[in-house]
Amino acid sequence: MESFQKSILLPLILTALLPGLAFCYSITKGPSNATVLAGSEARFNCTVSAGWKVLIWLSKGSPVLTVTSSQGSVETTDRFTSRNYTSGDEFTSELIIHNTQLSDTGRIECSIQQPSENNFAFLFVQVNGSLLIKNSTLTVKENQTVEIVCEALGWAPAPDISWMTNDSVIDKSSYVNQQSPGSNGLHNALSTLTLTPTDSEVLTCLADIEALPSPQNASVTLIFDNSAAENEYSEDNRSTWVIVVAVVLSFLGIVLLIVVIVVAVRCCLKRRGSNYQNEIRKVSAEKKKDGDLDDRQRSGSENLGYIPEELWNTEQSPRLVSLPPKVSKISGPVDNLHISSVPKVRPQRRTDYPISPKKIRNVTLV
């Protein structure tokens, strides 16, 4: 009898408990933290057991998407969509956030409208800024210390900067990193590398944040110049060439000056010679002209018995007194001759003329 009662009561108790078990569902796996780059997609999954009715997604405390067991997803914005998967008795809702922004960083919740059944995760949106080294090529000399600056602008969060040379990591003691806030919640970073190269090498600056699959990089090529002696030799050669050119130019200048002086002197002498020859020609022409005139004036016979007037007066011309009387060659009695008191004397030609004599010519034509 007691066993029969137990067999009847057990099904009744199970029947009474089944409706209560149907409302006993829960979140079996909640979302996980995600770190993404701004502009990309972020995905979160929430898995619940069978019997669920409503699932709500919240971003920073505000509902952004609702999923019901009867109607599926209810989307209110294009930036928040979902995909649904069913595996056995479990249901999985995937929240997709499109074109993530820096402002989307925060808490993402999955709720099934039951106490203590909310699961949440955090979304971290990061911004990949710019990275640059001003000089892509740099020439350094032996024993020369150089500073190379790598600048990262507009990052969120501020990136970790490191350096490599020829695929080898440079010790952190060789560079100094500085961070500073930028605009719109972004950050800037500056890294200064100081080294004394001993050979040509490629230096690479690396900037890394969690969302980047690989660090962003910028490179500079160092060209090591160990030809200091060659440079000095070339400088000496340059100096020597400068001196040689200066000497040659000076010599050419002196030669040119001498040539100019010689040409000028020759021109002056030639001009003077031509003037002198012209004067000689003029004098010769005048003399020839005077000679022709004298010849024309002397074309008649000269009267040898002509006595110039200046010789008549013996007192005025004492030179005639000393002249001996001319003996007459006329033959005949002396008594019949009448001798003049003034003997006829043919004077000699005077050769000494006054300094400025008057040219008086008396010609008697016979």
Automatic annotation (TrEMBL):
TM annotation in the entry: 241-265
Signal peptide: 1-24
Location of the Ig-like domain: 11-114, 115-221
GO cellular component, as recorded: bicellular tight junction; cell surface; membrane
Pfam family for this entry, one: I-set
A single BP term in Gene Ontology: cell-cell adhesion
Keywords: Immunoglobulin domain, Membrane, Signal, Transmembrane, Transmembrane helix
Subcellular localization: Membrane
PANTHER family recorded: IMMUNOGLOBULIN SUPERFAMILY MEMBER 5 (PTHR44991)
Protein name: Immunoglobulin superfamily member 5
